[in-house]
Amino acid sequence: MANRDKKKENRYTFPENTYYFFREMCVREPLAALCFCAATLAGVLLPFLSAGLPKLVLKGLEEGWVMPLFLERLLFLAAALALMGILRAGTGVYMETRIRAMPDIHNLHIMEKRLSVDYEVLENKGFHDEAYAAYDSLYRHHSEIRNGAAIWREFLVAAISAGLYGGILLTQSLGILILVLLPTLTAAFLQKKARAYDKKMRGLAQAANRKMDYVARLTSDFRAGKDIRIFDLSGWLLGILKKERRVSEGYVKRWENAYLAANFVDSLLNFLRDGCAYVFLIVRIVRGEMAVSDFVWYMAMVAGAQQACAQLLSVGERVGRLNLDYGRLRRFLDGWEGTAFSGKGKSSDQEESQEGQAAEITFRHVSYTYPESPDATLKDISFTIRPGEKIALVGLNGAGKTTLVKLLCGLCHPAEGEILVNGKKVREYDRESYYRMVSAVFQNVKLLPLSIAQNVACAPESGTGMDLDRVRRCLKLAGLWEKVESFPLKEHTLLGRRVWAQAVDLSGGEKQKLWMARAFYKEAPVLVLDEPTAALDPLAEQEVYEKYREMSAGRTSLFISHRLASTSFCDRIFFMEKGRITEVGSHHRLLEKGGAYAALYRIQSQYYREEGKAVWEG
Known about the structure:
Layout: H1 14-28, H2 30-63, H3 67-99, H4 102-116, H5 119-122, H6 125-139, H7 148-170, H8 174-219, H9 222-230, H10 234-286, H11 292-334, H12 349-354, E1 361-368, E2 378-385, E3 390-395, H13 401-408, E4 416-421, E5 424-425, H14 431-436, E6 438-441, H15 452-457, H16 468-477, H17 481-485, H18 508-522, E7 526-530, H19 538-551, E8 556-560, E9 572-577, E10 580-585, H20 587-593, H21 596-617
Parallel strand pairs: 3-8, 3-9, 6-7, 7-8
Antiparallel strand pairs: 1-2, 1-4, 4-5, 9-10
């Protein structure tokens, strides 16, 4: 089973997430990356040059510059200010426009991860927790990733400006620089504590947010609409939504209060810093140690340093949140790697020659336990199915039938023992190659909002690799062609009324027939039918049974059913109880044996006889 490497849990440091952000921006939007650099440069120089304008005027008056020289320097500075203003505005708008699509690109990666992991991983709660955390980092109301470029630009502008102004103040006095830096460092420490508390509270709020998201999706679920209205569940669902919202908002208020306390202390320290800096400079000018133009310049530097430090802390808080968001996103995208299939590349010549032939299947002492389950679902299962053999798998609910099918299909992998197909361990196959060998009809299947033919052929692009004659043949084999032929567009009729206004809806039984047609179309060596007639009426069910031999011709097939009368056409029957295969044989042989299969068959046949008698007498 593919698991996330636990060593990656705390791997994503601030420098690593910073590198990740800029690498993604440079790779996906190189022109926007250049605009980012230009906007950052303009953001630093524009206020710096603005601070120099008063000094230039006063210095010209102090030194008695002639008017041409005065105007020349003034116009040069004004032109530089105008250029920086245009550069910052123009590049900023372009950059924001291009980079705002980054969350959608990250979401595409999340969907790719969900689609690419082994099916077994989808049954792991930790996987879904991390997937939700990653999605929440992108699209929640206070998400910082959506504004990542602006945050980083403001942070770099503030950091460079603080260094620039601090260096100029250092030439005047070390003390005044310390006055600027000390409150900044203190506030930074408090912000770090607030972010740690933020991370803790955000993790607790995540569970409530998932519940709210589930309820919100349930209210728009077409399938749940009937139950919600018939059983009056709307009040109950709204109650859950309001309760979890209160819980979530409680955690949000806690981490916001932590930031509020840190900001209050920062404001108090800034007031003390400003007072001391102004007193120091005023004393210097009163003593005649500083010219008026220099006084104005250093006052601007103090103000600029104060503003840069304040901005650094303000944006630093957002950068911290951005770091948390990127950490959650990358933890999911980089985790859950690997596959239980170890094969790579193309299938061997021998495997390719066997792809169209019925397969031999062997289970050797196979056991399986679901994640976080204390008990094994399958226990020491061993059997061999010969090529072309038709097997019925029966038993009560919870016996382990569907789990055995998942193992056979390569969706899950045994904790103990091994499974072989055509003498080769399933794990040694390439995943895509193995899935081509298996065709299945599961109990719950989703139909895509495409045409009937596209659903049967699994061809999202119309006409791409689709054999329409084969589609019609499979629809006839599944007993659905008569219905399809009644539509004006026949097999090209669209499904999914929630997507297409001109689409049609199929009944439960018709959908099941369509799923069977899709399984037949694939023509894989192994055919698995998991309760394929559960939604069919008795006549349609009997038709499927009669056609089963034609359906499974040239394939090794496994047929799961609760109705024991439907198993008589199979070569052998595997009867399961509590995760074990307890009886094996043909229908008549198991009846003669008089075991659990025979007892269950008598109960079912008695029910049908009594039901038929009641109907006849009525």
